[in-house]
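Section 5.1 Outputs to date
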Amino acid sequence: MTLLKYILFTAIIGLTFACNTPSTTKQNDNTKIKETEKTVATTPESIEYTTHNVPWKEVNSFEKVPFDYMVPYGEEELQIGELRTPLTQDTFPLVIFIHGGCWLSAYNLDYLSAVAGDLVKEGYAVWTPEYRRVGDEGGGYPNTFKDVQASVDFARTLADIYPLDLENVVIMGHSAGGHLALWLASQNNLSDKSRLYNPNPLPVKGIISLAGITDLAAYDKVGNDCSMAVVELMGGKANDMQSRYTKCSPIHLLPSNIPTRLIQGAVDNIVPADQGETYAAKAKAAGDDAQVINIEGGGHFDMVSPHSAAWKVIKSELKLMMNEK
């Protein structure tokens, strides 16, 4: 992608998106891990938050909730992740939360910190990986996919250092991150000749897709500003590389054999509802436990606001998926 084209591209996407407790030191023996103090951000009580059809501007304005550890999962600069854990000595169920942003480098993991911090209050450890995206050196196919694979499987290493319960892991993803979460669920269906073949993926209890893309070729045809990124992600049009699109679209890799919830806003103008509905119908036909949950009046960014009505539903579904009472 030329520099001018990329600048124009990210500018258009940006228009769509516009469319303290005492500190606790956490001990570890990994010298590669950077630590920060855990603090609790305070918010003026006078602020009124949106509960339905939350705008990107509001989500992007949330104060970042500090992470506990910044951990590299690979050698590349962007192969890092943020780990947040509750302030107890228990073993924590783990949520792996993959951020969206149209697979573009213009958008990183920061906007998930508020909901990640809220999940920590519920007793979950939250691992939020960064990954190479369109606009980053090496971003796009295949490295975007390989990075998320590596970041999820790295949970095994994290569990050697931190008290993470790998019997209770759920992968959650928003928007483009929802696409990647659903793709990870079905990676066992890739041929061992594929560049994306993973011989030993981390077992997970379930997948929660928040306004996720399920069919790349169909999404490219939507023609909105975010869907413009599909061709850049994949390195070409679907007509020219049908096999690649098939291997990277969750809807063509069913069954996943993993319980899946597709939660989406009824008035989402970025990812059409039929992305989730078509996937769920096909997944059920293949024998999967897949359900769509439509949030009345909900938009694309309700899924990542801790103040939205949608977020209460999301936490409830997560609790059920973890088989908690």
